[in-house]
Amino acid sequence: RSMSSVTIPPPPCMLRPLEAPLRYLFGPGPSNVPPRILTAGGRPIIGHLHPEMYEIMNDIKQGIQYAFQTENNMTIAMSGSGHAAMECAVFNTVEPGESVLVAINGIWGERVAEIAERMGANVHTMVKTPGGYFSNKEIEQAMEKYKPVLFFLTHGESSAGLCHPVDGIGDICRKHNCLFLVDTVASLGAAPIFMDKQNIDILYTGSQKALNAPPGTAPISFNDRACHKMFNRKTKPVQICLYHHTGPVSGFFALRESLAILAEKGLEESWRKHKEVAAYLYRGLEDLGLKLFIPERDLRLPSVTTIAIPEGYNWRELLAYIMKHHQMEMTGGLGPSIGMVMRIGLMGYNCEKTNADMALHALADALKNCKKSKA
Ligand code: PMP
């Protein structure tokens, strides 16, 4: 056979049209993307170095500064998922051998601890079962003991449905010469966060939750303390994250539109709406006889609600029923919360009482039609 002949034929699947059904994305993300953002993402591509693109990147920077409530100059949208931002934060600020303290109360702290460990940091963890939270006193005691250069906390713990208090922790970190890194992938736009006022040194989020953009771009911001640590390191970072590359132009168009929607609506209104719809959902869930996983109302994450698995039911069966009969995604737990919770996310554009009603109706239908085992 000649070297130039094709031996692998076109795969039959490629000769069929793309199938991507319309689905209600009422899980912990991604959320549905509104037509306005889809349209922005569908605009003709321009070069990533064209002047218009610089302007768009600058708009995005300002949109993130508003969403994060920060004046940090080092504020960018990364090409990548929330995990990419998580890695970027740790890889760039921590050097091998340095001490890192991670608060674990669900899967996201576990992930950060693993990333930091793999890059050679000396990782110390504070661990609570999913839904648990840490007092400032506990955090300060651990900081005195381990003397970390970086402390990680998840603001919106989406695997547990917990919104962790942040006030005062930034000050404790400063006192102990430690950087404060906060994950707001699941909470940004849904629950208040004030990067500058709360003395958060590094903050990141994702595009696909309350911002309602497609997955793949991740806003991140570093303050002067974090930049100083990054630019004065003795060793080169394991991974260069802030480098020149061909950015995901369509993703940035969409992200710009999602930040514009947030700016038009206003942060306060977005936070208020998430809280209002979440409270409405809680009432409906309780009326169905379901128990909310986080007992303290003030600690519940307004974007992702966790329900204790109702006794006698198989959670996988309930979720499969809802997907099959209602074209609706709800999910189970993740990492340590698997088998403990079912999760409903109503984020950004999806955050409406009518959607809460649809989710409640689907759940009621599943509870009625899925077998309850006596086991
Ligand atoms: N942190 C939190 C709190 C999240 O909810 C998620 C996504 N579920 C991530 C990080 C990871 O983001 P991504 O899936 O975009 O990598």
UniProtKB/TrEMBL annotation:
Keywords per UniProt: Aminotransferase, Pyridoxal phosphate, Transferase
Binding annotation for substrate: 343
Assembly behavior: Homodimer.
Modification sites for N6-(pyridoxal phosphate)lysine: 209
MF GO annotations: alanine-glyoxylate transaminase activity; L-serine-pyruvate transaminase activity
Occurrences of domain Aminotransferase class V (ranges): 24-352
Biological processes annotated in GO: glycine biosynthetic process, by transamination of glyoxylate
Name the record gives this protein: Alanine--glyoxylate aminotransferase
Cytoplasm is among the record's keywords: no
Required cofactor names: pyridoxal 5'-phosphate
A GO cellular component annotation in the UniProt record: peroxisome
PANTHER family to which the protein is assigned, alphabetical: ALANINE--GLYOXYLATE AMINOTRANSFERASE, AMINOTRANSFERASE CLASS V
EC number, as in UniProt: 2.6.1.44, 2.6.1.51
Catalytic activity: L-serine + pyruvate = 3-hydroxypyruvate + L-alanine; glyoxylate + L-alanine = glycine + pyruvate
Tree of life domain: Eukaryota
One protein family per Pfam: Aminotran_5
Family: Belongs to the class-V pyridoxal-phosphate-dependent aminotransferase family.
